[in-house]
Amino acid sequence: MANHLTILARQWKSADENDELPEALYDALVGENNTAYERRVIKALSRATRIVNNDGSIRDFSELVKDWEYSHSVYGHTSVCQACGKKDIVQNCYLKNKEDGVTELIVGSTCVFRYMEIVIDGILLEGEEKEEWLRVEMNAAKREFRRQMFLARYPTVMGDLERYEPLTHHYSNFGVKRTYRYRYNPIGKLFKAMGKRMVKFGYPGPQLEDDWARFMNSAEDRLTEHNDFMEQANKERLIREENSRLLQTEREDRWTLELERQTAERDEKASDFLTHTAPLEATMNQWEQNARLQIADRLRKGTPLRGYTNTVKEWQNRISVMDGAEVEHPVFKQLEELDESTLNDWEKNFRQSIMARLAGGRELTKKQASAIARMMKGKAGSIAE
After folding, report:
1. Where exactly are the structural domains of the chain?
2. What is the mean pLDDT of the chain?
3. In whole angstroms, what is the distance from residue 262 CA to residue 57 CA?
């Protein structure tokens, strides 16, 4: 009897491996109390799964269904559910056989929800959590499908974003006043939106894809126009730079000539000053001699005389006196007639200063008149005030 059971088990197992089990056996697995939908699912999964144990016994459906696990979802392909037979399913869920790791079934999300166990991080999902998880998987599959479809139409989209990137600056940077430099640029807006979508999702939304398609229809013509524009703009820029360089060179030449002229003029003015004041050098004290050199240096550098202005005027008047200028003033006549040999150094300098003052048309102060009176006493008589 034991040998007969062993032989029968081997026959059942061999028939299961060759898909030669009798239809009546599958009907028996289905049972009579299940709905038509459940019968189709049980029979389909039983046909795709090993249902005979090594000892020849038949596995229960609740056991054999655990041989399958959810793998992934695919969107965009309408298939027939290999579990319940429903046609044109949109959400294609792939089940993988855990025993061989190769065999796959394509079923709908409803069959997965009802019969497949889904365990995430050790937690068995049920009810709304399971339904929400399958919805998330489907959305991910939709995104992947749309990404693949978009890349199939535009396989070089990332390269195109780089190739046509110069067009994003065409309208905002050339031929526009600075006030309107950042005005609206539709191409720049399109590229910015495409870049963000490609990085985040890998494909654009419907409206953005339509905008991209319209742009790509004329992208090459626009790029050619842009390159021609840039070439012409560069030529004009080079011409402007050359004209600016020539103008700058001309200005520098003018500035150089003007600087040389002003330098020669100042040198001449300083030389004339030294020559003009040379007759006074013998009568100058040490301070005046130093002041004379400093004034000449300032004239050479073009800096203001400042505190030396009155000194220069006085020297001019002294030179006028030395040149025999006629001054109608009684004191001037008296000082002119004085014998210098009878004067000391202070009196000589004072006499020259007063004569220069009078030659310049300036009046004497009371102190100066008193000093002159004391100096003239005993030399040429006193001066009536």
Report:
1. 2-151, 154-217, 237-303, 313-385
2. 81
3. 121
What is the rounded distance in angstroms from the CA atom of residue 295 to the CA atom of residue 316? 14
Contact 129, 109 (CB under 8 A): no
Distance CA 210, CA 194 (A): 12
Q: Can you tell me the mean pLDDT for 219-231?
A: 89
**Residue that the structure tokens 């001066």 belong to:** 383
**How do 104-107 and 89-97 pair as beta strands?**
antiparallel
Q: Which residue has the tokens 């030669």?
A: 20
The pLDDT of residue 384: 39
Asked whether the beta carbons of 56 and 5 are under 8 A apart, the reply is yes
Would you give the distance in Å from CA 54 to the centre of its chain? 72
- Give the E-state strand segments of 23-141 in sequence order: 68-79, 89-97, 104-107, 119-120, 123-124
Is 324's pLDDT higher than 90?
no
**For the whole prediction, is pTM greater than 0.85?**
no
Q: Compute the C-alpha angle 18/23/29, nearest 5°.
A: 100
Q: What pLDDT, in 10s, does the model give residues 185-214? A: 788 889 999 999 999 999 999 999 999 999
Give the pLDDT of residue 246: 95
Q: In degrees, to the nearest 5, what angle opens at C-alpha 141 toward C-alphas 135 and 142?
A: 90
Tokens 């998330």 correspond to 136
Are 49 and 83 in contact by the 8 Å Cβ rule? The answer is no
Residue 7 pLDDT grade (very low, low, confident, very high; cuts 50, 70, 90): very low
Hey, what are 176's tokens? 């526009």
Q: Which residue has the higher pLDDT, 332 or 382?
A: 332
Cβ neighbourhood burial of 82 (10 Å; 0-12, 13-18, 19+): buried
